[in-house]
Amino acid sequence: AIARVIGRRVWDSRARPTVEADVVLAGGAQGRAIAPAGASTGSGEAVDLRDGGPEFGGLDVSRAVAGVNDEIAEGLHGLDATDQGAVDAALRDLDGTPDKSRLGGNALIAVSMASAKAAAAAREQPLWACLAGSSGKDLRLPLPEIQLFGGGAHAGHRIDLQDIMVTAIGARDYVEALDWTAEVYAAAGALLDARGQLFGLADEGGYWPAFDSNEAALGAAVESIERAGLTPGQDMALSLDIAASQFGTHGRYRLAADGRSLDSDGLGELLEDWLRRYPIVSIEDPFAEDDPEGFRRFTAAVGQRVQIVGDDFLVTDARRIREAAAKSAANAVLIKPNQAGTLSEAREALDAARESGFAAIVSARSGESEDVTVTHLAVGWQVPQLKVGSFARGERTAKWNEGIRIAEALGGRGELHAIEDLGAVPI
Ligand code: PGA
Ligand code: ZN
Q: Percent of the chain having pLDDT more than 90?
């Protein structure tokens, strides 16, 4: 049973305050977790509780931490941590708001994840094994989606596209997928350096390139794959997060890097043109969260051959996923636990995706920490893909490296999920 819940303020990878929670059980087992934070958030997400005020840009979390230490600690006292559903229901009830704004999504997700880890510790199991239950040995590792270049809200809007990622669709296993990514990441750095386009690192550790257009990023990504000695589209493919809510609303999209505005159809045509000319297997948030019709038309046009992922659009919400599935507006979903606010609700979103025939990707946020829970969720829930940012910076490598350890514990190099488990990716 839960004996103590402790909240404290720690720091995230953008040097902003965030919430850490410890859950201690009566038997002494304990779990710890840190809330991540987004920068390009969907309007339907669970809301973080921030102090406002002059310090740290108004982003301090002293009220959220206090809520963990008093109300949440008291409310969870004596609950069975191995009953995640009961713990999360209690968290939801304590908060009492539909968007978790009273105690804060940041407080709730930290406690929810810490409780899951305490339950695993009580069973003397790693979290992934505890979540996977009896299905033990033949577990697979997720295919990584790894950021090469950052843009949008994560890189001063130098380009409009937010994530230009690579995914090792031809890799034999998880370890090889990372090996290849390391070569491509190094090649991309050398390429930009040689062109004088290296501008530092974006929020998720991808290069912050001085590209003159959005399409330049696609060309540079393909060239990086080639320079690494790999075949684009066969070994390594591109995956994009357009994060279109950041530059479009009411069906108008302003591509500042290209100096033009497009309507929803125009943006769809541009993306289809890119799909013809570049080895792209996945596109996230191709349209804004207020443009479900754009998603629907795009899915009808290319959803048979490309993974179309809802992030801001679906915000890890089971109801929204079912609605989108009913309209065929996407074929995959990003699962970000803090968008939902509790692990149980993130799991419900994943179940809704599976029932709807949607593919899924477990994802970290742009503001992260040393917490590696998402890697455990991807393995424990057997989600075929994982997105945690780039291949540089400790808060990112912590999560990729945890996958190597899990693969080893499973006795190998991490067998990947079948490519058919991804959303409509051509083979
Ligand atoms: P965020 O970005 O964490 O800033 O929301 C990540 C994403 O859009 O996938
Ligand atoms: Zn996104």
A: 93
pLDDT digits (tens, 9 = 90+) for 206-229: 999 899 999 999 999 999 999 999
Assess whether 145 carries a catalytic annotation: no
Asked whether residue 396 is marked as a ligand-binding residue, the answer is: no
3-state secondary structure (DSSP) of residue 288? coil
Instruction: Give the DSSP letter string of 225-276.
Output: HHHTT--BTTTBEEEEE--GGGTEETTEEEEGGGTEEEEHHHHHHHHHHHHH
Element (H, E) at 148: strand 143-150
CA of 248 to the centre of ligand 2 (A): 14
Is residue 216 in contact with ligand 1, taking CB distance under 6 Å?
no
Kindly tell me if the per-residue pLDDT of 232 is higher than 70: yes
Which secondary-structure segment (H or E) carries 186?
Answer: helix 174-195
**pLDDT tops 80 at residue 422:** no
Instruction: Write the residue with the smallest CA distance to atom 1 of ligand 1.
Output: 38
The interface predicted TM-score (ipTM) is: 0.99
Residue 117 marked ligand-binding: no
Residue 370 appears among annotated catalytic residues:
no
